[in-house]
Design brief:
Chain lengths: 365, 547
């Protein structure tokens, strides 16, 4: 009789143990999730078991092709863990010295800066990277490097706005645009980085004035993402939207014909050409502080910044390559060249916190 | 002598296990509350000055309006269905439960997809009729929109509970009132409302807890509430201390709501000792009245089930070729297996605790049965934060053990594994399993097991040979309920899953948030279909029990 109970409790323990075990297994799997696909292409001449583990927030099929190319060239397998940027950073922090990650790829300099602040990255002193990536597009201490560039621009209704009326970000706060401006919520990092860049260039006071002016001119309370702003223009809710360039590219190539129509009826304008330049941001890569395969990781960094990889890597997301020797895609070229803000993107991270506070203080939702 | 020793022993084992499980539930959550005493950091001052008000106001608006609207829709439908007969009544009786099969976050992005500028309604109007209406008629990504979503997809809680009360308990009172010549409206106001107050409040408090728990809808619509705030401060600002603090405040609010519920419910009790099932004789509604009743039910059914499901089916047809790859089957499989496994564990634990509580009528057993209910009232984001803190501490404590097993073991074993997620599911959904099992035990009473004990079997044997067979239906229905809830669960899974671990729910949510609404439809549809099947089985099972 006693035995029965013992059996029950024992089997319960067993179940719990099994669960724990299953858990360990899945976590091991995640450490080498891409092994199967890469195995076939492994190079025999190189020593086996050369790997690099990558945490990335990108999910494009073309990336896999690039990793394959890299493996063919170097014999180093690329293991990829995909996730949301903030969660990846949080995970890196949680794993600390035990992390399997060698590299982190994530969008926005603000986030890369946060990873640096949390001491998750380390400096890389590498001439190839310095040659391939302009100085302002990488961290001051070389803890992260931009790989692709996007602009945050003004998108306007082709029907109702003559681009000659447009000039600067600052002009968006003038009375003529009252109830005309569409922009997403301030909880989004793109807006935070935009404001951070203004703090860096024009100082805190002016930046705050600008944010206030935008709130005053908003056509509606911020809602939806960047694409939703373009749709709202076409729907007539407002005339101008602040958006990242690549969303227009994505919409033009959307599987939904209605979205394509929307993208075709708006124009892209690069503001502040005669003054401080258009706000740009990067998607970038950093070497993990506790990387176990640093050498391989740096090789992958070099590869991704090289001429042969840059085009494909940038075009996957309709972005500009960081490598100045590589031309942007036809679509981006059709928008013309533009002058960019002349600040080191590290500043975006430095002023991120202040930017968030300003948004909260002035009530940009 | 020997027998008493046995009884004592097994009593202890059941109670020890119960004690362990209960402590595991309480401890992480107490930990959260303790943080309120700690000194806040500088971020907190900023949050308090500029943001906290918004969180409180928005959450309250959502709770209040959803509460009121679900009550109105829930009661009126349950009254129409249980007191009248009209065309389609039989179908709607269970059809009106179906909105529960669609998780609100899926409903949110589906409705957004239907209503937005490139959605089917506006595109059709524009392209075929050349009509362009103001966007304000289509603005669902707003406070009003979220109240609409929560109302339409959560009202069944009120509807189900009130309906079953009215059907089973109110026949005598209502028929007397009819005999005494009261009009329908008078009966509704003076009889139905007062006697069903307890069930209405029970249903509405479930709705409120669901609203506070939600992360998907408010995040997608960009409404700042407590749950989005917890995510934002934790992942966005990287400030876990402030996130814990927000969680603690939310926890206090939840406890306040539960207390209010108790007060409202506790004062007057209409308990009917007579459990004999006697339905109300239904009045037939003819002509216009019948049509109106039909239309009302049909409208709610369409909004809450038909329209979103058809839209999802349409999108699925557009995208299934692209979506159905090996990866898809992999996360469908992991989704189902984790839900099955967790539901199984929850039912086992629920049985152990419920059996202990039944055998022992003392302070401890009352405390246990109350504690199991706590988890369900705590929003997912709060449980997630509690569990993660708990597991990291646990890993630190167990590090020597890991080293013993594997020299190269990393420090974080449990907290990077799926165990953490399953543990969180247990905290959150134990209440549902426990309620089913407890009511099963209540129905069979203690007579049989006492007889078995007198005949010399111990508790464990009695349970396996006598009780288990008798409460089997409750075990099955409890299992189904828990299974479906885990399948739909979002916030816990989003935060606590190991990397590269996807479920149908997280995948739908991620697709939708990446503006790939069409791609999100297939996994959403699978969740809905499985939920419908489960609801159907559950309904059949409880019908059988009732008759």
């Amino acid at each position: 009789m006693k035995n029965k109970l013992m059996k029950i409790s024992l089997s319960l323990m067993l179940v719990l143990a099994l669960v724990a075990l299953a858990g360990c297994q899945t976590s091991q799997e995640t450490q080498a999730p891409q092994e199967k696909t890469e195995e076939a292409t492994e190079n025999q001449e190189k020593p086996k078991n050369q790997v690099v583990n990558l945490y990335t927030d990108r999910h494009y099929e073309t990336d896999e092709e690039l990793y394959k190319m890299f493996t063919e060239e170097t014999g180093i397998k690329v293991n990829v863990v995909k996730g949301k940027s903030d969660e990846l950073i949080e995970r890196l922090a949680r794993e600390g010295a035990d992390t399997q990650a060698d590299l982190l790829i994530t969008a926005d300099a603000g986030r890369l800066f946060r990873a640096k602040e949390k001491e998750l990255l380390q400096s890389v002193d590498n001439e190839t990277l310095f040659d391939n990536i302009p100085e302002n597009l990488r961290d001051e201490d070389n803890q992260w490097f931009g790989l692709t560039v996007r602009g945050r621009v003004i998108v306007y209704s082709k029907d109702r706005v003559n681009p000659s009326e447009l000039s600067t970000y600052e002009d968006l706060t003038s009375d003529k645009w009252e109830k005309k401006i569409l922009v997403r919520s301030s909880s989004n990092i793109y807006n935070q980085s935009l404001l951070a860049s203004f703090i860096a260039i024009n100082g805190e006071e002016k930046a705050k004035e600008w944010a206030k002016g935008i709130v005053k001119n908003m056509a509606r309370d911020p809602e939806g993402n960047d694409r939703a702003q373009a749709k709202a223009i076409v729907a007539g809710e407002g005339d101008l939207a602040i958006m990242n360039t690549y969303y227009i590219g994505k919409m033009l190539n959307s599987s939904d014909p209605e979205e394509v129509k929307v993208a075709k009826s708006v124009g892209v304008f690069f503001p502040n050409q005669d003054t401080t330049g258009t706000h740009i941001n990067v998607s970038g890569i950093g070497l993990a502080r506790h990387a176990k395969n640093s050498e391989n990781a740096i090789k992958l960094m070099e590869f991704l910044s090289s001429e042969k990889a840059q085009k494909q890597f940038a075009e996957a997301n309709y972005e500009y390559p960081v490598n100045p020797d590589v031309e942007p895609s036809e679509l981006l070229k059709s928008w013309g060249e533009f002058k960019t803000q002349d600040i080191n993107l590290s500043k975006l991270g430095e002023f991120n916190k202040r930017a968030v506070e300003i948004f909260n203080e002035i009530g940009w939702k | 002598m020997i027998r008493t020793k046995y009884i004592k022993h097994s009593l202890n084992s059941w109670s020890i296990l119960s004690f362990i499980f209960i402590s595991l539930i309480i401890f992480p959550n107490l930990n959260i509350l303790m943080n309120l005493i700690n000194k806040p950091n500088e971020n907190w001052t900023h949050i308090k000055t500029y943001l906290l008000n918004d969180y409180i106001i928005n959450s309250m608006i959502l709770v209040i309006f959803t509460g009121i609207l679900t009550t109105i829709i829930g009661i009126s439908l349950s009254w129409i269905i249980s007191a009248y007969d009209f065309p389609g009544r039989k179908f709607f009786e269970w059809g009106l439960i179906l909105p529960l099969a669609i998780p609100p976050y899926i409903a949110a992005y589906t409705y957004n997809g239907i209503l937005d500028y490139t959605g089917v309604i506006q595109a059709t109007l524009r392209n075929h009729f050349n009509i362009q209406l103001s966007q304000k008629y289509f603005d669902i990504m707003s406070m009003k929109g979220s109240i609409f979503i929560f109302t339409i997809f959560l009202f069944p809680y009120v509807y189900i509970i009130t309906k079953s009360f009215l059907e089973k308990q109110s026949a005598a009172l209502i028929e007397n009132a009819r005999l005494l010549g009261r009009s329908q409206l008078e009966i509704f106001i003076h009889v139905v409302l007062p006697i069903s107050r307890a069930s209405i409040i029970g249903g509405v408090s479930l709705v409120i807890l669901e609203v506070l728990n939600d992360y998907g809808v408010v995040k997608f619509f960009g409404i700042t509430t407590f749950s989005t705030a917890i995510f934002k401060t934790w992942f966005g600002m990287g400030d876990i201390d402030s996130a814990v603090r927000i969680s603690a405040i939310l926890l206090l609010i939840v406890f306040a709501i539960l207390l209010i519920e108790k007060l409202f419910r506790g004062r007057k009790k209409y308990s009917f000792s007579n459990t004999k099932f006697r339905p109300i004789t239904r009045k037939e509604l003819k002509d216009v009245k019948g049509i109106l009743a039909f239309l009302f039910c049909f409208a709610v059914f369409s909004l809450g089930f038909l329209i979103p499901t058809l839209q999802l089916a349409h999108w699925s047809l557009m995208t299934y070729k692209k979506i159905l790859d090996i990866e898809f089957w992999r996360f469908t499989f992991s989704s189902l297996s984790i839900a099955l496994l967790s539901a199984g564990l929850i039912i086992i634990i629920a049985i152990i605790i419920a059996n202990y509580c039944r055998m022992n009528d003392n302070f401890l057993s009352k405390l246990y049965s109350k504690t199991t209910a706590v988890g369900y009232s705590i929003p997912g984001a709060v449980i997630a934060i509690a569990v993660i803190i708990f597991f990291i501490a646990l890993d630190n404590k167990l590090f020597w053990l890991y080293k013993l097993i594997d020299k190269n073991s990393s420090k974080l074993v449990l907290s990077t594994s799926i165990t953490m997620l399953i543990f969180a599911y247990i905290i959150r959904f134990l209440a549902i399993g426990f309620n089913s099992i407890e009511s099963g035990f209540e129905k069979i009473g203690k007579k049989f097991s006492e007889a078995s004990r007198t005949l010399g079997m111990n508790i464990t044997e009695t349970f396996l040979k006598v009780d288990f067979k008798m409460i089997k239906p409750s075990i099955i229905s409890g299992f189904i309920l828990v299974f479906v809830d885990i399948l739909k669960e979002l916030p816990l899974t989003l935060i606590l899953r190991p990397f590269n671990f996807n479920t149908l729910a997280t995948k739908s949510f991620e697709y939708a948030n990446d503006e790939m609404i069409h791609e999100a439809s297939v996994s959403s549809l699978i969740i809905i279909i499985i939920s419908i099947i489960s609801i159907y089985i559950f309904n059949k099972a409880s019908d059988k029990e009732a008759s």
